[in-house]
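As promised in the previous annual report, we have extended the structural survey to additional targets. Below is the entry for non-specific serine/threonine protein kinase.
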Amino acid sequence: MLEGASKLRPTLRVIGNLLSTRCDAARLYHLCRELELPRVLLGLAGQVLDSAGTMQQPWSITVLTDLVAVTTGYFTSDFNQERSIARGSLEIFAEAARLFLALLPRLLAQPMDGERRLQQQSVVGFTLLCESMDGSCSSVAGPFYAGLCAEHHLLLDTLLQGASGSVKEAKTTQEQSERLADIFMAALASACSIPLGRGGCREAKKQVAQHVAQMLAETPQVLGQLLEKLVRPTCSLNGLKILYAACHVSQSLCHLLEMGPQVPGALAQLLKGEIPMPEPVRGQAQEATLHLLSLLTLQLQAPPPGLDVVALEAGELFTRSAIVSLVSAAGFLLTQLRQHGVAVDLGGEEATAALTNALTARAQLCLPPPLGTGLYDGLLFFLLELLAQEEGVGTWGFAGSELWDITWHRVAAALGLARGEPEMESETPRPGQPTPEPDWNLISPQGTLLFLNLALLVFTREPHLCLGQLAQPSSLTLATLRKLLSPDFLLHLTQTQAGEDGDPGLVPAVVLHTCQLLCFPFAVEVDEETLARMVEAASEAEIPAHLLQACCHHLPLPATELPLSLLCHLALRDERAAGQFVAVASEPAVTFLSSVLLGTHAQPTYQLLALLAQVARASSAHLPFLHGLLGGSDGAGQALSQLLGHPEPLVRAGSCSLVGNLLRHRLGLPGGLAGLLERLLELLGDPDGAVRRAAIFAVGNAAYQAGGLAQGLAQAMPCVVRLLGDPQARTRSNAASALGNLGRNSAELADVLIQNEVPRLLLHCACHDSQPAVREAALIALRALSRQPGIRQSRCPDPHRPARRGQVQGHGRAKGIPAAPGCCPQ
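The corresponding structure token record, generated without further manual editing, is:
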């Protein structure tokens, strides 16, 4: 037996040395597969533990220690992080982890290990296993941590007892006990600390943290011992990690820390850097302390303990530190303190310089910021608070500053749009290229919304300084806004909000805030050339297509008003926008659009009707889409008739406008016009001026396409004539054009036109109306009517005829009146 053990140890040492090189993951994996590792190692360890005779041998602990050491080397190997190394590698890794957990309590309970070497190696192995699990895929890490909490919670209790120093043996020196407590502390921190990113093991690790938090809350002595160790250089960082993870899931523990007498002093020492540690560890401990204080402030809705020292030291770290994550953590805490009324005295230039340096330097996180926030969230939060209070830099200076430009670059890089370093505008990804998943460690979903709030503030105060970026198709600003509306990004964003902790309103808020930024060109005074370039750039960036997809999949129906309005503005000024809208409108989109059209929310319905009117106006090629949306050639009339009778005036007006634009085309309403005519004629007398204006526009175009409906339109003559005196100039103009179309298309209506004194009334409008557009429309209509012999022969006696003839001819020469009317201008 001794001979076998003596031969085994050199072999284990060679294998361990090979694994520690981590030189070639594929070759090391194949070596382990050929040697059947770690199954053989764990099997041997189990056999040794099961054999009472073997455990009586003095070398048994040494062999077990070597077996655990090589197993630890296997756990830390790179091939456990990648499924591509070999088929089944992750499955073997998961099974080995399960077997190791089953052995670990027995390894820790061995009484014959006087120097505790086996305990130390076993706990170190568990620590490194947890670190490997945090970097592994969710299908492996999730079940591991779930099993740790459900089946091996006694192991967690053992680790907590060991970390607090509660377990001591007579033969162990003080130094050995402290070293062992440090190792247990590191293991417990690895088991419950929050991993970076949003991997699948987060929820499972929450369960571990909940168990630890419950144990700390129920055993004040253990909690007190753990708090005392915060000032020990060798374990303070891991102690902070444990408390930070536990406070995320336990408000009762937060209250205990708030009342703990030793907490303010310990945290103040850590913030000041008074505890002797290596420089990198000191920075990490300060960052963890700031995060813990921010978390306590958020959870308790009150400033943290030791407020004066906290505010002073956080301000010093914010302005003096060169570590990005530390500056961000300090900024996040300072903003929390400000919101609770704490005075934080930071000069504007000093704060701006700190923000610029932090956003320029490369960042590396020690811990994920509180409650799922990202690294840049704290910086953005602080900057938004600074600008909102008009402290420090003025908004004008900020909008034109280097910091504004760097902020956009950093956010774009975090969203997966650009590389981390500022780059040329032309290097941004072009539409259609695949884009990576956002780095939620850098900017969280909530931080994305925070950035949009910051952008809205700056755009609102200095729109003309910001809008130039929207007129450049290759600008990073436009590319970032496009990214925020893209289907892949919104899908990633939606996935982050799944589960009980998700915010269902976050994704709609991101979409609507992005739409607000894109609406600025239409909300402020912009010259036509610049506006045209902005619209063209938006179409090139496929903004119209993304808007429709965002409405279909990510917005509740009442919230679609703004993006539909933006779509309408784009389609009005660029036919490509209408084309993108039609191209994207597949079956899910058609279902969504139909629900908007026939829904109970008037504003989205009106905006969609206005958009569809622009689509109809843009090209006859869009008619099949419109007919399909409205229910086909047979159902279009029924759907439009229902909309024309809507109780809301703006929906009735939008419906008339859509019908009028459809009637610009010869086949705009195949088989549906006869059923709509009566409803349109009724709306000529609508009490709402906008409805009358849109209705006469539709009737005028119906008259242009009349065909066999002339007699039906003749019944509307008195109503149309009355509208020549409408208070709205556009309505009077449309009425004149409609009368011209009636006379142009049907000689049989001449008598009706004469009976209603249409020529005389049009002549009166042409001479006396206060609006040039109305006078011009009346002149065009008169010229069309004069082509009908019956009307031409009809003269109304007028003593001032020569003077009026001169007036009419003068208007015709000045305006270049065309020979005949056409479809009414809307």
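The chain has 46 helices and no strands. The chain has five domains: 1-114, 137-250, 261-371, 372-495+505-708, 709-826. These points will be discussed at the next consortium meeting with the crystallography subgroup.
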